[in-house]
From TrEMBL:
Keyword RNA-binding attributed: no
Protein name, per record: Transmembrane protein
Xref: InterPro entries: DUF6427 (IPR045625)
Keyword annotations of the record: Membrane, Transmembrane, Transmembrane helix
Highest taxon in the source lineage: Bacteria
Transmembrane segments annotated in the record for this chain: 20-42, 62-82, 117-134, 146-170, 182-202, 228-250, 262-280, 310-331
Lineage: Bacteria, Pseudomonadati, Bacteroidota, Bacteroidia, Bacteroidales
Keyword Membrane listed: yes
Length: 334
């Protein structure tokens, strides 16, 4: 009885915790809207033409912020549903949803809309397709769908293509990689760019091919700049992600083999995202937003399965820290 009482006392996933964290995220968006953080949204010369066209079509600030918030909540919901369907966390929890919107809402660099706001959908759907191909060497359709989703995402953000080799690694780990599934994934990406090529031939303009792929292979290592406040949030997320990963590896036999392999891939996905963040300075913000997907799952797993007073207070400290850092950065910005 005492163990049950302690479990309930230090349970983080309560309506009160969800409510105050969610209200804090909404307040962050409201303050950012008032001070036009990140608005207007501009395209870039090296960005895919489709993303630049979308930037030009955004009618006003209110619409842009509403779309950005809707995409954030939609991505968080997809992450929650994927976690529930794949049973990555043993207990039912909304923490993946909560941590995703918290990480997005407390970083001014993500306001109000990025090319990866839609790319997150493609990544989550692609990961789901990959996971459902577990131990199925005949899953050519899932390999094709995953690569197709990555290809669609690359029309808005070309650097998402660097996640494709990671998916091949995942197929190998899940014993679904063979010549047929590899070719299916290759055809998935090729399908997207076959239509792009057709458009280029019709328009007699090959810039949709040349411009994005030129930037894809330009490596600029991230230079440490900005104030220490700008780096505290990133360092803290990386630290909690590492702690959560170590906890998973240290207690791996508490989960079944399938879940262990899924979580191992999520860990590798987080590492891959952070590595690319440092390699591509011109897309560092986008890779950081992609890293929020695996980090949200790993952080949610840690705060769900570990129950004691230290973890309980660490969770509330984490939420308050991110909120405080956001308003300090906004204050410095203004």
């Amino acid at each position: 009885m005492r163990g049950t009482s302690q479990y309930r006392k230090y349970t983080i996933a309560t309506p009160t915790a969800y409510l105050y964290a969610f209200i804090a995220c909404i307040a962050s968006w409201i303050v950012s809207y008032v001070y036009s953080i990140g608005y207007p949204v501009y395209g870039e010369v090296a960005a895919p033409p489709l993303w630049n066209a979308i930037c030009q079509l955004l009618p006003n600030k209110a619409f842009t912020y509403v779309i950005g918030m809707a995409l954030m909540i939609g991505g968080a919901f997809l992450l929650h549903r994927a976690n529930y369907a794949l049973m990555l966390i043993r207990e039912k929890t909304l923490l993946p949803f909560l941590f995703f919107i918290l990480l997005i809402s407390t970083n001014p660099d993500f306001f109000p809309l990025k090319s990866t706001s839609l790319g997150v959908f493609c990544l989550i759907f692609a990961v789901y397709q990959l996971f459902t191909s577990y131990h199925n060497p005949e899953s050519m359709d899932k390999a094709y769908n995953a690569a197709l989703l990555i290809g669609v995402g690359s029309l808005l953000w070309i650097h998402i293509l660097w996640f494709l080799p990671l998916f091949w690694y995942g197929m190998y780990r899940f014993r679904s990689l063979n010549v047929r599934t590899f070719m299916a994934s290759f055809l998935g990406v090729s399908t997207v760019y076959w239509f792009v090529l057709g458009w280029c031939v019709w328009q007699k303009d090959f810039s949709p091919f040349i411009i994005p792929f030129t930037s894809l292979f330009k490596i600029h290592f991230l230079q440490i700049k900005g104030t220490f406040i700008d780096w505290i949030g990133l360092i803290y997320v990386a630290l909690i992600t590492i702690i959560a990963s170590i906890n998973i590896l240290a207690h791996e036999y508490e989960d079944n083999l399938r879940t262990r392999q899924f979580l191992s891939f999520v860990i590798v996905l987080a590492i891959w995202s952070f590595v690319l963040f440092f390699i591509y300075e011109q897309s560092s913000e986008e890779y950081l937003e992609m890293a929020c997907v695996p980090s949200s799952i790993l952080m949610a797993h840690f705060f769900t399965v570990v129950h004691n007073k230290y973890i309980f207070w660490l969770f509330h400290f984490t939420v308050l820290l991110f909120i405080a850092l956001l308003f300090i950065r906004l204050w410095n910005f203004l």
